[in-house]
Structures are given as C-alpha cells and as structure tokens.
Amino acid sequence: xxxxxxxxxxxxxxxxKAQHNLIEDMFDxxxxxxxxxxxxxxxxxxxxxxxxxxxxEEMVVHPRVRREADAGDAVVDARLEEEHQAKELLSQIEKxxxxxxxxxxxxTKLREAVLDHAANEENNEFPFxxxxxxxxDLKRMTTAVKAAQAIAPTHPHPGVESAKLNFAxxxxxxxxxxxRDALRQVIG
Length: 188
Fold this sequence. Notes:
The structure is a single chain. By secondary structure, the chain is mainly alpha-helical. It contains 6 helices and no strands. α1 packs antiparallel against α4 (101-132), α2 (40-68) runs antiparallel to α3 (72-94) and α2 packs parallel to α4 (101-132).
C-alpha cells in the first residue's frame, strides 16, 4: 500500500479525511498515467488502500455512528450500500485489461462513486462523531482504525460490509489476499 508521506493525523476524522484526499490523488495518478502500463503499480496501491480503508470504517467507524447517532442506522445503512456497490465495481475492474479503454471508463465511474461516498461520510457521518466524542475518544478510534487497516484484506470482498462479517471473515480473506499479492510480486 502506498504510505502516506505526510504525518498521519492522530484524530480519526482528520485521519480518514486525509486518506480520502490521498485516494482522490491516487485515482488521478492511475487515470492520468502517461503510459497505460504505468497504471499497474499505482492501481494496485489504490485498490489496496480502498480495501483496507473501507474495511476499517466498517469495523470501527460505522458501528460507533450506529450506536451514537439518533439516525445512525439510516446513515450507516446508506454508507454500507455505497461501499457494497463500490466493491462490486472494483472487483469487476480488477479483471479488466489495465491498458484498455473499458478499464479507464469503469475506473472513472468508480472514482465518482468513491468520491461521492467520501463526501457523504464527511457530511453525514463524521459530524455525529465530532458532536458526541471527545478528543481522547477520537484518538482511540484512530488507533483502532489503523489496527483494522493493518489486518484488513487488500482486495474488495463484496458482501462483507458489516463489522461482524469483517471480524469473522476478514482475517482469512486478508491472509489469502496478502499471499496472492506476495506471489504476484514474485512472479510478476
């Protein structure tokens, strides 16, 4: 995964917003690569960041919003549906020829969906956390998000959008994903 070069914020909302900005930049890097072959490495990094970012939100952020916010169920359910659709699309994109126009077209659709999703989180979910949590809680959530990202799968797994499923299936999926990624690096 591409490491954030800037110092990571220690407050969960700032941390996730920084990742949203990084994801947008990574989409642009893939979409505007000067050589179609040059898309491969940044796309792999983007795919991995999207997978671990969403998994961590599903395991840590969404359950907290669901518990803390009066309308938490509706807000979280809408985000989970967006995440499911994005995982479906990303899974399809992974199978495409990275040099094809179809890859660019589908990745452009995914970019729009992901950026809309990030805006929805920032406008409809994060304010609940800011309202009800103190600075220490927000910092503890950052630690939990980083821990979840460290063990999260590196590829999308549509249908695994709940915290329970991520805890039950995530470690196994992560192990398989990371082994597959390692083999691809060795084999080429």
